[in-house]
Amino acid sequence: MSAPRLQLILLGGFQARWTSGTRIELANKKTQGLLAYLALPAGKAQSRERLMGLLWSDRAELQARNSLRQALAELGRALGSAEASSLVREQDRVALDLASVEVDAMAFERLAASDQVEDLRRAAALYDGDLLEGIGIRDAAFEEWLFLERQRLRYLVIGVLKRLLGPETGEQAIATARRLLALDPLQEDGHRALMRLQAEAGEIGAALRQYETCRDTLKHELGIEPSAETEALHRRIRQPPVKAEGSGGEGTAASVPAGSPRIERSGASKPSIAVLPFVNLGADLNQRYLSDGITEDIITELSRYRELLVIARNSSFQYRGKSSDMKRVGQELGAEYLVDGSLRKAGDHLRVTAQLIEAATGSHLWAERYDRDIKDVFAIQDEVTQTIVATLVGRVTASSAEKSRRKPTHLWAAYDYFLQANECINRVDTGGAEVLLDRAIQLDPQYARAYAMLGVTYAFKFFADYSDDTLNAALGYAAKALSIDDNDGYSQAVMGMVQSHLSNWGLASMHLERAVSLNPNSVFYASLRAEWLLRVGRAQEALQSLDAALQRDPLMPPWYWELRGMVLLQEKRYEELIQAVSRKNPKQSWNHATLAMAHAYLGDDSEAREEAAIAVSMQPNFSIAGWARTDPYADPAHLEHILAGLRKAGLPE
């Protein structure tokens, strides 16, 4: 007779038992947390240092070590005679034996990765609630780990339910859609599915109410309207079907049942708009970051509206400080409408002017001036955005003004520091950015984007110091940002970038997909997703994505050419790589190293050595081993190709 196996139920709470049915009682919450952590994934050995830092990070080392020893002792007593086969202790590491334990969360992940409908149904049934739901363990490190794991598994089950919407029918499909919306009310797929199913069942009133719920939720949470597909479905449900002429006789077209939705897609293109950089008219020319920040915020807010195609900032910013013919600018940018304006700051007083121009005629559709105290900058941005949308979108769809989504912070000084930090990030001045972001957070501890930008800052530092602590800091700041506002696309994109560098490919994909769905117009989000495509071996798709971004924005920021170069490196298109990376200005040490390996592969030894020397002079601690730590790929062969190129160029090991 085989020995009983350990069963752990972690989804929806915590329960430990043997396969014989006998429950295992663990009174201490931290012992439960310890067992859960060892189980995800089971079989992975964890160092005692890691476990101490996870559950007793607020205690001195000796206290933490004693607490871990007591928790392991309690766990050993609870597991009894089966301890030897399920709990493995080797020197300074602890693990659960994968062969003797069953974990519902691991089974859920395996089933969620399947393409079989029955497996997806079993996965959905296994997800009985959030990971360790109701288990409260007061330790910041554990709470951070639990938050990320809960979010990862929640995104997985959302994906499972969305995939089940197709094959499910009737009441089963309705239950799936409702469960999807209970987990994430922002999933339009779920709202549309319910609308269709209710309409097919003849429950037109319920379908229309579901649309209103969808519309109100999206507006309240994200400040956006439902997608064109949802709107088209709503129109079909509201409007009775037109009966074909002569229907009812033999050989005529069949009539459409009342209430059956039919989606009609419009072929009309979206109206395009470009926001030119607002001119700083103040005495202090060093405060250009302020006018740039307001310009970028207006671009971001307009990008939230799916009715508009917003030209990316890097194309429109080429006209900074130039007196240009608006007709010509519109033609060059491919924009039907232009927004420009100016800003003057004097003491605590701020004057902002803005105007909306029809590019083809050069005529002014709207102009306004705002004289306010400096603390009212957010109200000015809201008014400008709302009025532009009302004027522009109203001409096309006769819709009313739409309210912009909430601003990231209501404290002017914190926002000011954030804008200055963004300028530092653009110059790769991580030290300056960190100081400014720390000041912003001191003023507004709930400033999600400031934490996310700190994540970017520490990711940049990681590329230079190769330290795990630096990368973990980036992860912590990204997690903090999402814990404050997980509907912020920037924070989702940063978390996706960090997870890519941790080789958590599935989790990185979920965060990046979420970012893109929150703002489809963002070139930044799309480019970070292209980086993920590169790292999982889908270089052709990455290049297509970057081509699309370049077509939309011919003047991409410097990092674009760096990323494009790495994609071309994987494709072994070395001459094109050199052309791309050469366009990046200024260059970092790793850019010169990339050029060095490309020249080396082309047989240009003198150019390769020259670029390698520049890389080492800029970063004296540069090493091939360090590069390997900061540049992960799902397929080791891709990384080996890079490392071989670095060696060929003569860079230090």
Concise summary:
The chain is an alpha/beta fold and 653 residues long. The chain contains 29 helices and 13 strands. Residues 242-268 and 393-408 have low confidence and may be disordered.
Describe this structure in words.
The chain has 653 residues and is of the alpha/beta class. The chain has 4 domains: 1-164, Arc Repressor Mutant, subunit A (Orthogonal Bundle), CATH 1.10.10; 167-239, Alpha Horseshoe (Serine Threonine Protein Phosphatase 5, Tetratricopeptide repeat), CATH 1.25.40; 272-397, ABC-type transport auxiliary lipoprotein component (Rossmann fold); 412-648, Tetratricopeptide repeat domain (Serine Threonine Protein Phosphatase 5, Tetratricopeptide repeat). The chain is 58% helix and 9% strand. Strands 8, 9, 10, 11, 12 and 13 form a 6-stranded mixed beta sheet that branches. A 4-stranded mixed beta sheet has the order 3-2-1-7. β5 (87-90) and β6 form a beta hairpin. α17 (430-443) packs antiparallel against α18 (448-465), α20 (489-501) packs antiparallel against α21 and α24 (558-570) packs antiparallel against α25 (574-582). The radius of gyration is 28 Å and the shape is globular. Mean pLDDT is 81; it is low at 242-268 and 393-408.
Give the low-confidence spans. 242-268, 393-408
Number of strand segments? 13
CATH-derived architecture of the largest domain: Alpha Horseshoe
Biggest β-sheet: count, sense, barrel? 6 strands, mixed
SS-based structural class? alpha/beta
Helical amount: 55-70%
Q: List the domain count as a whole number.
A: 4
- The CATH class assignment of the largest domain is Mainly Alpha
- What's the Cα radius of gyration? 28 Å
